Every structure is written in structure tokens, then in C-alpha cells.
Amino acid sequence: MPDKLYKTKGIVLRTVKYGETSVIVIIFTELFGVQSYLVNGVRTSTKKGTGKANLFQPTAILDLVVYHNELKQLNRIKEFKWARIYQYILSDVQKNAVALFMVELLTKCLKQPEGNPELFQFAEDCFLQLDTCKGTVMANLPLFFALHLTHFFGFRFTDEYDEQHPFLDLQEGSFVSEQPYHPNFLEGRQAFVTSQLLKAQHPAELEEIKLHHDFRRNLLFVYEAYYTLHIPDFGKMKTLPILREILG
Length: 248
Hints:
Strand order of the largest sheet: 1-2-3-5-4
CATH class of the largest domain: Mainly Alpha
Helix content: 25-40%
Radius of gyration: 20 Å
CATH topology of the largest domain: de novo design (two linked rop proteins)
Structural class: alpha+beta
CATH architecture of the largest domain: Up-down Bundle
Order of helices and strands: EEEEEHHHEEEHHH
Largest sheet: 5 strands, mixed, barrel
Number of strands: 8
Low-confidence stretches: none
Shape: globular
């Protein structure tokens, strides 16, 4: 099967140096899902190569022309350029911490190389919103992203929170009327706030949800536990302790 050329957008998840001048880059593409590419010559110090490796920083959104062959684990990129140029994510410490948390969460969820344009659009929109948002919206965005990402991987929460269903069963992903027999559940304000976050359809709506930073940080660990329950070998998130410190 010969390699074919395709145009696609991609979000850079991870870059590893390869040889003297090249990189292997893991990219979440709009057309093919998560893919690995070998990119030659981007780390040279010649005029031609200067700055090219900068495009492959995690979180970067690129316009790509790629060779694609389903039988290959490592394909190549023919052309690449910025699709969007961030104003703040790559330079602002807080925004960068949130963005890297989002990248790690995406990476842990994306196990199969298959296209999912709706997921791509959701992720792209969240990164673009993060770049320009401030204050409460930015602080709540990791919670919003973690909750709504579950929709694309088959273990979304159903939001039926009310006085009759005040407990959130993390094993079932639903609000229930009685306290579960296992320890994986939320109640009280944590259950209520999770319901409010689930109701938000767009990051701009997060402005209305005022939370103390300790409360927010504790919820992030609960959501990490939720992923651990539903994704095999999910493990611990490396970016979460850093995010907790920075958002404090």
C-alpha cells in the first residue's frame, strides 16, 4: 500500500529528539487521531532549520500535509505551519500549566489511532479559549475539560443531580438517591459543583462558578480518580501536582 498525502490539522502532544537533527512527534490529528511522525532536519542550526523545532512544542496547533499509511507506525510530515499562534499559552506560567495538564489527559485517553473530528474540535476550542481567558474561567477550565472529555470516551457523567439524587457515584458515573456502598462517590458541595460544571456548555460560562482554590484542587484529584476507575492503566498524572501548586 503506497503512502498517500493528506491535509489535516493537528495538536502536538509530545516531541522526542531523534538523532542529531530530527524529532519524533506525537500529534493528535483531526483526520487520523493520534499519530507518530518522524520530522527530519528541524533541529539544525542552519538558517533553513532555525526555529522549525519550536513548532513542535506540546499544545501547538498546526496545519499539516502528512504522508499516511495505516500499516506504518511512524509516518512522515511533508509540510507544517502554525494553524493558530497562541498569544499567551507558551509564555504564561499558569496557562502553560493548564495546557500541559490538558495535553497529558488527552494523551492518556487516546489509545487508538482513529479519527474523531468532534473530539478534535472540542480540544482545539478549549486550547484557544485557554489562550485568551482570565481569572475564574482559566482556574475552572481544567475541571471543565476533565469532565467534558469523558463524553468522547464512553464514560460520561449523566447529570441528574437534584434533592432526590444528591450522591455522585463515580463507579457508575451518575447521580443516585442513596449513598453507595463503596468509597468512590461525591456528596454535598462537590456533587453540586460537578453538576454545575456539567451544565456549562462553553468555557465562558465558567465565570459564574466561584470556587476556593483548595476546593478546586481537591476536585481535580477526584476527577483523576474517576479516570483511573474507567481507563485501564491510567496511572497518576504528572502534571496534576504542578497544576495544583500553580493554581494555588
